[in-house]
Amino acid sequence: MKRPSFALPLRIILFWSVFLALDTATQIAFKAASEDLEGMSFGMPFLQTALAIPTFWVAILCYIATFVVWMAVLTRMKLSRAFPLTALTYVTVPVLALLLFGEHLPLIRVIGIAVIIAGVIMIGSEE
User: Fold this and answer.
1) Is 123:78 a contact under the CB 8 Å cutoff?
2) 55 near 29, Cβ under 8 Å?
3) Predicted confidence (pLDDT) per residue in 41-66, tens digit
4) Distant-in-sequence, close-in-space partners of 96: CB < 8 Å, separation ≥ 6
5) In 3D, which of 2, 9, 6, 1 has the Cα closest to residue 126?
6) From CA 34, how far away is CA 27, in angstroms rounded?
7) What is the rounded CA–CA span in Å between residue 127 and residue 9?
8) Cα separations (Å) of 57 from 29, 79, 119?
9) Long-range contacts at 1-4 (CB < 8 A, ≥ 24 apart)
10) CA–CA separation, 108 vs 87, rounded Å?
11) Which phi-psi region, left, alpha or beta, contains residue 43 (left: φ > 0; alpha: ψ -120 to 50)?
């Protein structure tokens, strides 16, 4: 039986790390911006307020940068191997939400995060 390989070239690991950091930063910045919009009804005042929030623009810029880096990743990896790695944001975002926003991480969610990590390892390996 052939052992699965998890090895990735350093360049891909670098691109992937940047993608993960940017994708995580996007979600954290959107959450930070949303706190200034709390209680507002969706409409023109909501949009005008959102456009005036610096973290909203940080989120948009991170979103665009994430797209660019993702395209770079896809030029170097098979989609079937690259896409499962995006699930790691389901690990990084809740952990940072806990640390930065004081959000609660119940045990069931911690177990889910462990399952995601295991799944990414299994799906992301090459046979």
Assistant:
1) no
2) yes
3) 888 988 899 999 999 999 999 999 99
4) 24, 28
5) 6
6) 10
7) 16
8) 9, 29, 33
9) 2/127, 4/125, 4/126, 4/127
10) 17
11) left
- Nearest 5°: the CA angle 87, 34, 96 is 40
Asked whether the beta carbons of 1 and 27 are under 8 A apart, the reply is no
What are 52's two structure tokens?
A: 């005036």
In sequence order, what are the residues at sequence separation of 6 or more whose Cβ sits closer than 8 angstroms to the Cβ of residue 110? Answer: none
* Reported pTM: 0.83
**Residue 27 has which token pair?**
């979600």
Q: How many CA atoms lie within 13 A of 118 on its CB side?
A: 6
Residue in this structure with the two tokens 């389901």, named with its chain if needed: 90
* Cα–Cα distance for residue pair 104/95, rounded to 1 Å: 9
5-48 pLDDT, tens per residue? 556 678 888 888 999 999 999 999 999 999 888 888 888 988 89
CA 96 to chain centre: 11
Which residue is listed with tokens 């799944």? 119
